Amino acid sequence: DRAASLSVRGEYTADVLLNNGIKNVDVTGCPSLLWHVDRPARIGAKPTEVRSIAMNGTRSDNDPDLLKPGSVYGIGLLISRYAFRKKIDYVLQTELSEMQILWGEASTISVQAIERLKKIYQSKDIEGIKSYINDSIKVFTNVESWMEYLVTKALTRGTDLHDGFAAVLCGRRAILVGHDTRTK
């Protein structure tokens, strides 16, 4: 009642609020787009080679249906596998097992998690998976270091909305693969 306007990400949220009697709503999109309010986002670099690409995906490794046909995370799974096969950098979001390997905590990973990684990457070679993780997987704990990394890449592609926003805000190209209602 006291706000002139409420900012929401999309039409769905606006509709939910409207159905609950809240009318002072503006669809502004994700607030991540406002990271660089002091300058406009522009695209600078052109993709030239595979090594200048960073990939990302929404995989939700906690979802018991991840490996089942028709999973909403299926495209993220395919992107992970492609990046693994081609040895392309991959930016993690929530993939705990990979993070544990990356941070030197491989001995704390359960046998079930190791078997799941083999299925995720479609490889029986866990040492090859670990090597890929250590060489090509990236994890960022703050926006600044994430954007510093993305500046070194000509293109980012995948299902992570925020990775795409960050790339564009860095002047890089991004391809967002819509896999759910939010990204579509």
How would you describe this protein?
- It is a single chain.
- By secondary structure, the chain is of the alpha/beta class.
- Helices cover 37% and strands 12% of the residues.
- The chain contains seven helices and seven strands.
- It has helices spanning 11-19, 74-86, 96-102, 111-121, 126-136, 143-150, 161-169; strands at residues 6-8, 25-27, 53-56, 89-91, 137-138, 155-158, 173-176.
- It has a five-stranded parallel β-sheet, sandwiched between helices. A two-stranded parallel sheet has the order 1-2.
- The relative contact order is 0.18.
- The mean pLDDT is 85.
Count of helical segments? 7
Which structural class do you get from the secondary structure elements?
alpha/beta
Give the total of beta strands: 7
**Broad shape:** globular
Which key phrases capture this entry?
two-stranded parallel sheet; 37% helix; 7 strands; 5-stranded parallel sheet; 184 residues; alpha/beta; single chain; 7 helices
Q: Could you write a compact summary of the structure shown?
A:
With 184 residues, this protein is α/β, with parallel strands linked by helices. 37% of the residues lie in helices and 12% in strands. It has helices at residues 11-19, 74-86, 96-102, 111-121, 126-136, 143-150, 161-169; strands at residues 6-8, 25-27, 53-56, 89-91, 137-138, 155-158, 173-176.
